[in-house]
Amino acid sequence: MATQGLQFEIDSKEVEKMLNMFMSKVKNPKPLMEVVQRYVNAVTMKMFSGPRPDTSEVRGVKWPELADKTRWAKAAAKKRGKAIEITRPLVRTGAMRDSIKVLREDEQGGFVYGTTVRSKKGFLYPGIHNTGGNPNPPQRKWLFLTGLDLRQLTRFAIDYALGKIKLD
User: Fold this and answer.
1) 54 has a pLDDT exceeding 70
2) Which among 14, 45, 63, 75 could disulfide-bond with 54, CB atoms 3.0 to 4.6 Å apart, if both were Cys?
3) What is the pTM of this model?
């Protein structure tokens, strides 16, 4: 019995078209990075939403309860007429939350995201809250990506490379 061979033909024009499309995407990642920026902002803002942003643990992190001392200080400030949210960690006036944004961006769309808000004493308190102090304040992680987030960002990159993500 004779063995039959297998033959197939590749249309090099289609392959070349696909490679050219892919290379144009690699050379211009800015549209992809705009999608990434919006995603990072959306997942970060989830940490600050709801009646107590940390209680649902939608991002896998539950923040420690406020210390009694902090609750009393917030209640006293509210009594004096200040716009204060008494029960929400990391949201006293909303200034820190509202300051979170893209801080720096390069021509390819790479970016630095966060906040440079400072305390009245001049230190960058959002970073201390994100990593935790020694011993205070406790860690209330607000700027991070989960494994699910990283998988979603990978999906965005694949979709972008395949021409499925197009921005105006």
Assistant:
1) no
2) 63
3) 0.76
